[in-house]
Specification:
mainly alpha, elongated, 110 residues, two-stranded antiparallel ribbon, 5 helices, single chain
Length: 110
């Protein structure tokens, strides 16, 4: 809520003139500013809710993928689902490394 109020305040302070349909510039009325403030505040609140919902869906999908992958599932005892998924995707086939230290070098950890 705080972000939308601050953004609307900045927008309202800058919008002294609104373009008319004919291309000329007319002074913005108090009613136009109020409508603009309300509209932008509603859009920003909706955006915040969508961002929260997407974050939850991302976490849920990552958990589903890692639960289905045996290597990811084993790594999850030490790290979270996103880290295990990123590690397994980076390594791909562990048989191409002679030792576990080789994987660390490949990742730039040593």
């Amino acid at each position: 809520m705080g972000r939308s109020v601050a953004c609307c305040a900045r927008l309202a302070s800058r919008s002294r003139h609104a373009p008319a349909a004919s291309g000329s510039v007319l002074p913005a009325t108090g009613m136009m500013r109020s409508m603009l403030y309300i509209s932008v505040a509603a859009l920003l609140e909706t955006l915040a809710r969508v961002e929260v919902e997407l974050a939850g869906l991302d976490k849920k999908k990552a958990r589903q993928i890692t639960a289905a992958s045996k290597p990811c599932w084993h790594l999850m005892s030490a790290v979270g689902p996103l880290t295990s998924l990123a590690f397994v995707a980076s390594v791909e086939d562990p048989r191409r490394y002679k030792t576990s230290r080789s994987i660390g070098s490949y990742m730039g950890l040593t």
